[in-house]
Design brief:
alpha/beta; 247 residues; three-stranded antiparallel β-sheet; six-stranded parallel β-sheet; 2 domains; SIR2/SIRT2 'Small Domain'; binds zinc ion; 37% helix; 9 strands
Length: 247
Amino acid sequence: MPPDKDLLQAVEWIREAKYLSAFTGAGVSVESNIPPFRGENGLWATYDPELFDISYFRANPAKSWTLLKKLFYDTFRDAEPNEAHRVLARLERRGMLKALVTQNIDNLHHLAGSGNVIEYHGSVRELVCISCKKRRGAEPALLESLPPKCECGGVLKPDIVFFGEEIPIHALLNVEKTIEKTDVMLVVGTTGEVYPAAFVPIEAKRRGARIIEVNVTPSSLSQDVSDILLRGKATEVMARIEAMLPA
Ligand code: ZN
């Protein structure tokens, strides 16, 4: 657990913030049993990242989908939001947290009840047609025969950012607006190594925001970007923060 003086300082900044935002990564979801992409137990240690390249997907949609379904739909179906997701949702309901930017594609912030979520890398919640770009919910029935197809005959793809794809423009614009207003940012469970996502806290800091980092171990942001590093599991540190806020 982080020292009380750091926690007290963080809580004071959160209470005084005019526009508190949050930026979350894989460390928030590991406690919901969602495997991270990176690190020694990450998906990249088991699967070739090439499999998540958009050109591979276009060339091998059925093969690609067999893996995507197993990794992102069968696994995620049973995953539930944890206390870190729930604290962030409650902070929003209390009017304290104004926006949440996540790198996670697992939909858990939505399931926890967060409303203003900017999904930087998209979400598995929806499928998008690679031909006509129409979106629809990722209903299990659609995934019974792979690859799932759109009415237009095009292949449906999870609405997540593959390698070789751009960050969705609406996400970039919303992030820009969020950073512009943010005076305090909670950075939770991210190593800050995935670009361009890592620019979110870096840019917020550059524009004068205070950065409160919550991570089990120091990250690439800890030294130069974070004002405070609260070391510990996201669930435990977020619960401590919430407990120290006025009721
Ligand atoms: Zn279509």
